[in-house]
Design brief:
Four Helix Bundle (Hemerythrin (Met), subunit A), Rossmann fold, 2 domains, 12 helices, 52% helix
């Protein structure tokens, strides 16, 4: 397991190369190019972080903390600010205990996301990992309107070695969830993961659909632990933050899955999401393989972002 963790950290460092080049090379040139800590110094750092998709609100908070620490510790050399900056970003992302309660209880997990973000793939990878850890997993194919979604999820169910509950394309998603909940109870499944649609172009319908699904779960399976995970595409930067906010209006979002971080210079969005929304990024995806979806660790992420060597 330790070897696997180190292997993932290595892949995370590699996957964040574009983001790191976007942020860290700029930060390093600031630390080496300035001889004094002044307003220009802070302005340059601020601009670099915003360009790295950490967002204005998060960046402002980071800079304020940095200024305060420099003042309190009477720091004079710009080079001494790098570790303080790294520690400040880690602190900004700290939401306390980032629990994965659904893994250890009878649970229903709704996975929500718009087309093309890697939602169905994330459902399949998560199912495979839970199955490998000894959990009895069932999938529900409630994304019934996207062409090919049910076939794609069925393929992932076969790959992960788990059962799937599905109806015809175009069926009522809530009816699929009803069937899936009934099956989860009768088969004594540990975790039911439902792949749900996320059609933001018609937010009212989306909200009503999610509320209907949650009402069915509450009524038919009141004792179960519920989690709502929103999948966002890391390559979309600030747009991922905006869409996560919209989903928060439609459902009680308990966590974010951030995909495609291996191909983007916008990986700093993970900092913004966790800092600004106060919702934990629970998983990050940095590749296509089943183990390329991993639990998110803010400290490891920032270390990889700045290529800080792990002990």
């Amino acid at each position: 397991m330790e070897e696997q963790k180190k292997g993932f950290f290595g892949r995370l460092v590699e996957g964040l190369t574009k983001t790191r080049n976007n942020i860290v090379s700029g930060i390093d040139s600031i630390f080496s190019g300035f001889s004094a800590i002044d307003d220009d110094f802070y302005d340059e750092i601020e601009e670099t972080l915003i360009m790295g998709d950490l967002g204005i609100q998060t960046t402002t908070s980071i800079i304020e903390n940095l200024r305060q620490t420099v003042k309190e510790q009477h720091i004079k050399e710009p080079a001494e600010c790098k570790q303080i900056l790294i520690d400040t970003i880690k602190k900004q992302m700290d939401l306390g205990e980032n629990a994965y309660e659904f893994e250890n209880r009878k649970s229903v997990v709704l996975v929500i996301g718009v087309n093309g973000v890697g939602k169905t793939t994330s459902v399949g990878k998560l199912a495979g990992q839970l199955k490998d850890s000894g959990r009895k997993v069932l999938l529900g194919a409630a994304d019934t309107f996207r062409a090919g979604a049910i076939e794609q999820l069925t393929e992932w169910a076969n790959r992960a070695g788990v059962d799937i509950i599905a109806q015809q394309e175009g069926s009522d998603p809530a009816a699929v969830v009803y069937d899936a909940v009934s099956a989860a109870k009768s088969r004594n499944a540990d975790v039911l993961i439902c792949d749900t649609a996320g059609r933001l172009h018609n937010k009212k319908n989306l909200m009503e659909e999610l509320k209907k699904i949650n009402r069915i779960i509450d009524k038919e399976y009141p004792e179960v632990y519920s989690a709502n995970l929103v999948v966002r595409d890391g390559t979309t930067g600030q747009n991922a933050l905006a869409q996560a906010r919209q989903f928060m209006e439609a459902a009680d979002v308990t966590g974010i899955i951030l995909t495609k971080l291996d191909g983007t210079a916008k990986g700093g969005i993970a900092v913004a999401i966790q800092s600004e929304l106060g919702i934990p990024v629970k998983y990050i995806g940095i590749g296509e393989k089943i183990d390329d979806l991993q639990k998110f660790n803010a400290e490891e992420f920032v270390n990889a972002l700045f290529d800080v060597k792990q002990a």
